[in-house]
Amino acid sequence: MAPKSLTLQPRVSIPASNENDVGVLRLAEPVNDAVIALATSEPANGANAIVTGWASGDKLVDVPVSILSAEKCSSGEYKYGEGEILDSMLCALAENSQACGGLAGNPVVSNNQLVGVASWGYGCGNKGNPAVLTDLAALRSWISVNS
Fold first, then answer.
1. Mapping DSSP to helix (H, G, I), strand (E, B) and coil, where does residue 143 land?
2. DSSP conformational letter for 107
3. Measured between alpha carbons, how far is 33 from 13 in angstroms, rounded to an integer?
4. Mind listing the pLDDT tens digit for each residue in 37-94?
5. Where along the chain do its domains lie?
6. Peptide bond just before 130 cis, omega within 30 deg
C-alpha cells in the first residue's frame, strides 16, 4: 500500500513533552479488511490491553499490559513526576517483566478498541517503568476530522 498523505497533530510537542503525539496516514487506495474501532473514552485504570509490535527476527508479538491513568502514572509510584504525564497521555505496564510493552508507534488495544499508541517512556514499559501512550480517545475529534 502506498501512502497518500501524512498529517501530524499541529500541537504535537516533540521532544519537549511528547504531548499530542499522533498523526494520520492516508493510504492511496482503500483497505478492504476488518478495522478496529477508535476508542470513544479512556479505558479504566487497570484495564487489560495488548500492545502489538515486532520482535527480533521479524516476528509479530502481542504483549499484555495494564493501562494506568495519567493521574496514577504520575502519582509518584512510578518514575514520572508531576507535569510529565499530560491529559493526552495514558500509561501501560507490561505484565511480563521480560517483555517490552512500549516501542514507539505500536498500537494498544483494549476491549476491542484502539485506545493508544506507544509514545515514550523511561525504559521499556516493564519492571515498574510504564510506557507512555498517546490517549487516542482524548484526540479522537482531531483524528476523525483528519482521517
1. helix
2. E
3. 33
4. 999 999 999 999 999 888 777 788 888 999 999 999 988 888 888 788 988 999 998 8
5. 35-138
6. no
